[in-house]
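User: We ran a pulldown and think these components assemble together. Before we commit to crystallization trials, I'd like a predicted model of the whole complex to look at. Sequences follow.
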Amino acid sequence: MEKQSFKKWIGTRKVQRRLVIFTFMFIPLLLLLLFTYIPFVKMIQFSFYNMKYLGDRIFVGLANYKEVFQRKEIFGSLFNSLYYMAGGVVQLALALFFATMLVFKVRGESVFKGAMFFPYLICGIAVGFIFKFFYARGAVLDTILQGLGMNLDNIPLWLQDQSINNISLAATSVWRYTGQNVILFLGAMMSVDTDLYEAASLDGANRWQQFRYIILPSIKSIIVLNIILCVSGCLSAFEPPYVITNGTMGTGTYFVIMNRIAHENQKVGTASAMAIVLLVLIIICTIGQKLFFKYVFDDGSSDESKAAVRKRKKAEAQRKAAQKKGGLV
Amino acid sequence: MKKKLLSIALALTMTVSLAACGGNKGGDGGGGADAEVPTIDKINADDYKDLKADIKILTDRTDIVDTVYKGYADQFHEKYPNITVTYEAITDYAESVTRRLTNGDWGDICFIPATVEKSELETYFTPMGDYETLNGIYNFVTEKTYNNTVYGIPNGGTAGGVAYNKKVWADAGITELPTTPEEFLKDLKLIKDKTDAVPLYTNFSAGWTMGAWNDYVGIASNADADYKNNKLLHQKDPFSKNDEMSGPYAVFYTLYEAVAQKLVEEDPASSDWESSKGMINNGEIATMVLGSWCVQQFKDSGDHPDDIGYFPFPITVAGKQAASSGGNYAYGINNKASGDNQIAAMLYVKWLLEESPIFADEGSIPALKGEPLPDSLAEFEGVELLSDNAPKEGEESLYDDLRNTAEVLSGDYPVCEVLEAALYDSKKLDDLMNEWNQKWTSAQESFGVEITE
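Assistant: Here's a predicted model for the assembly, 782 residues in total across the polymer chains.
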């Protein structure tokens, strides 16, 4: 009797649904917990200890955080991220340009798309090695420039000259990610109704006007998303400086220095504190950007910015007030 | 449903216990010491003329396993026709062997990986003899000794010095090798003026090649086997300059000045280790500061193997020069193998260490004490070869603790800092060394180290 009822119970739609949901969710949730949240909580815990990978751990309170804020080279390294942010701006502009070119009929469209997306498929370490040789003295870049008539003595040492080496490194990440941005933008642009272009060209709009008044407003949200991803990516730039210069010659970004402190000097506690400080910084930056875009572009989801809306409403209110006044008179 | 769950649970437990079975089997398999294995000093080849065994030896030298090493196995086979030796080369040596050791069935002889701690040696390896006896016969046995018992004997050793291209140095008109940093710098200057070669190639971009400079801080700069593990830990301001130009300051002074006087490659940031080997071989590079293990590689990288030489680091302390020397990988014998195999393995190791041409072939310091140095180390005649003495009890990890906390002498970056300071002329060496002194002092304070030196 009881078995019968269990069978019945387990057979009901409600229970079956829950069972399915539970069993399907269990493994992903377990993995998420095991490999993301537990390590993260552990990292917060580590940041309060003076510890190596092996051996005793000593609780030191906030000393690690104090060290992070006191050491010049740690916060100085965030300055290097500015180079990558400038690179990010160039990257977005280039990507928008290429995507716009490709969205209109172009001969050999897929070849260009493939060629531009290709760098993104190469792993970051390999990109690093490619550019290490690309920038080496008398190697690829120098040879090309000499071919163009430049004298070797006038060509800077791309990785050593401190006025240019961070730009060299940021350029590698522009090279790598532009193609990916192009594809993302192109995807968004494809969803724009092609009739609009036709209508616009009938009205005599040129390509720039089409871009400014049709394409840009319709892909605003994806641009905002890319900018946010780009800024947090720049703060945590790692692969180019790690592989190409190992953070020497003044190219050490925050992550490279964190890696050095954690692995070469075995200061796991300090490195964990650095990671948490960076996390907080990234959160602050992201919220700041969100607020900024919300105010200026209304998060990219509406055609009008908050500022513009306010201005219009104010004007309306004034007009109404004037009407009322006029009515009374 | 319930049944299914149960069977899944059952299957899981079975898999787990099966895995456990595998582990156990490794532990007690093989049979262990069913015959008494004599120590390496007492073993007598004539007693085992009839011993039949097939033994396997693991090595990291994938490049020469089928040529040079196979040749040793054949020579041994001629002498002991009943014993057959086969080599197995492993690419990812240290890691795979560490994993395989836990399962007793890995072979009979291996190079003991550095991951095996001294206290674990007796778990995996057959004792080769007691420390006092073997220390009188072989070099570097201290490294694999635990509780006065030796579990592994290094396959010869290397010395710390400077690799150079003899032809380039001779072309520059240098007849006598330098013994002080100043002489060294003067010679580098001569090379720069008189030849087209890069006087000193730093290999900056590889990173570990810069870390190699730290190796000269102990013995080469102080001629004292007690310095690194004992004195340095209790020394006040170890990086200060002294009148004699010795000590850690002298090591970094050599690098700093070489860079400041533009005696290194033009663009250290794009230097390349792999091609530098060929360049020193054919005379495009005059000098590199690296351990003696590099000599053979430089010789093999081009058509002028005879041009490569090696001399001690140019620092003279109280009129004498010293060079640090240490053991290569040590041979260890599997204590889980059968008794016959262990005896055969012991015979082979003894033959390799005492009779085979392995040390001349590899250009390393022979295992037997009193044997002449290989040709590649001929310049070390008259130079004292020392190995760092063990730290005092209770201070085993203090050196690592101090250098990690101070972030000096640890990893590659501090040495890179020296080069950068000289390259951009951004910091005087004395200022940098003072910073290091401060870091060292505060690290000493944080560990409560007594300053006695």
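The interface with chain A takes residues 1, 204-205, 207, 266-270, 272, 397, 400, 404-405, 407, 410-413, 416, 420, 423-424 of chain B (CB under 8 Å). That may be worth checking against your pulldown data before setting up trials.

User: Thanks, that helps.
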